[in-house]
Amino acid sequence: MLLFLNIAQLLLYIGGLGLAGQGLLYVLAGQGRHTNLFYQLIGMVNKPWTLLARLIAPKQIVDSQIPFVAFCIVGVLYIAVTIAKIEHCLSIGIAKCQ
Questions:
Q1: So what's the pLDDT on residue 64?
Q2: Which residue, 1, 40, 84, 95, is the most exposed by fewest CB within 10 angstroms?
Q3: 3-class state of residue 1 by DSSP
């Protein structure tokens, strides 16, 4: 169980950092961001999260806001997995969680 929680937490952490990096490049690159190689690479890493956000979000959400929605979803899931990991470690003992 602990291994599963660690893997889920790692995947969410990578997704959150990727979405944050894409948001930073969105601001820094300006209008030329779609031709920026790094913006496109990070966009490929974030594709599963943005597809999930598009499925969950209502149709009124514009496509340009979907990465922010994905970041919020990843953040909430990361907090939930972290809380589950803490509860699991408290139930089996802290010494076994290291």
A1: 87
A2: 95
A3: coil
Number of Cβ atoms within 10 Å of the Cβ of 34? 9
Question: Residue 70 and residue 65: Cα distance in Å, rounded?
Answer: 9
Instruction: Please state the pTM of the whole predicted model.
Output: 0.87
Mean predicted lDDT score pLDDT of the chain: 92
Listing DSSP states for 19-79 in one string gives: HHHHHHHHHHHGGGGGG-HHHHHHHHHTHHHHHHHHHHS-TTS-GGGHHHHHHHHHHHHHH
Place of tokens 């300006």: 30
User: Which residue has tokens 């929680």?
Assistant: 5
Phi, psi of 34 (to 5 degrees): -75, -15
Q: What mean pLDDT is predicted for residues 74-91?
A: 96
- Identity at 66, one-letter amino acid code: I
